[in-house]
Amino acid sequence: MDLTDDESVEKAFSEVKRYPIDYFFWNAGIWRKLPFVEHSLKDIDAITATNFTGPLKMLHRFHEAHILEKRPYRLIAISSVSAWRVREHETVYCASKDAQAVFVLNFAGELAKELPGSQATVVYPGGMKTEIFKGVNVDTTGYMDPRSVAKIVWDEIQNQKEVCREVHLVRDKEKNDGSFFVEHGPKPRGIK
Ligand SMILES: NC(=O)c1ccc[n+]([C@@H]2O[C@H](COP(=O)([O-])OP(=O)(O)OC[C@H]3O[C@@H](n4cnc5c(N)ncnc54)[C@H](OP(=O)(O)O)[C@@H]3O)[C@@H](O)[C@H]2O)c1
């Protein structure tokens, strides 16, 4: 589906609702680094729709259907360290990743009450070597391997007992070899 297009989201939902789905990974995202003044209105719409409002609409439909079926599910949001770390010229992107995380943190209790057995996980990765930087001049040499990140994410959600968990995968910038630390719990916003 194209998350920036409501019709496309509805169409995709009508297709996926035929299948029993137990894991909702909120992973899609686009990234922009440029001064706020240089974001076009289209950029703002694209970032907010892809990273936040589009997935939220899909989740709404998915959640509604799961309530009707009384089927619990796991919600896993791939947010970003950018949700809590201040980064120059990434204003709209960082705000979208925090909005995603804050939505899930607030929704987790509601989800577990409505569909007991459900759980939510918010993952905040640091820089990964992915297509998000395609065509942009970013040195990803010391960035994390997304496969190592995916493995940790999967292990974390399999071991999770609590309703809501926050997992931070923070790059070891001193080593700068792709290694990272795993930390849990809330982080204050605005860290430089
Ligand atoms: N890479 C990093 O350093 C980093 C760090 C922290 C967090 N993250 C987060 O990790 C998540 C995954 O990103 P990634 O780094 O793996 O980048 P990626 O390789 O570019 O993957 C982005 C994904 O988003 C999908 N997507 C983009 N626009 C879409 C749209 N309009 N409708 C539907 N799907 C759309 C893409 O689908 P198609 O392939 O079909 O286009 C792709 O599957 C994002 O939420 C990002 O914010 C990334």
From TrEMBL:
InterPro entries: NAD(P)-bd_dom_sf (IPR036291), SDR_fam (IPR002347). One of its GO terms (cellular component) is cytosol. Pfam families: adh_short. Keywords: Oxidoreductase. SUPFAM superfamilies: NAD(P)-binding Rossmann-fold domains. It comes from the Bacteria. The lineage of its organism: Bacteria, Candidatus Liptoniibacteriota. Signal peptide: none annotated. Belongs to the short-chain dehydrogenases/reductases (SDR) family. This is Short-chain dehydrogenase. The keyword Oxidoreductase applies. It comes from Candidatus Liptonbacteria bacterium RIFCSPLOWO2_01_FULL_53_13. One of its GO terms (molecular function) is oxidoreductase activity. Coiled coil: none annotated.
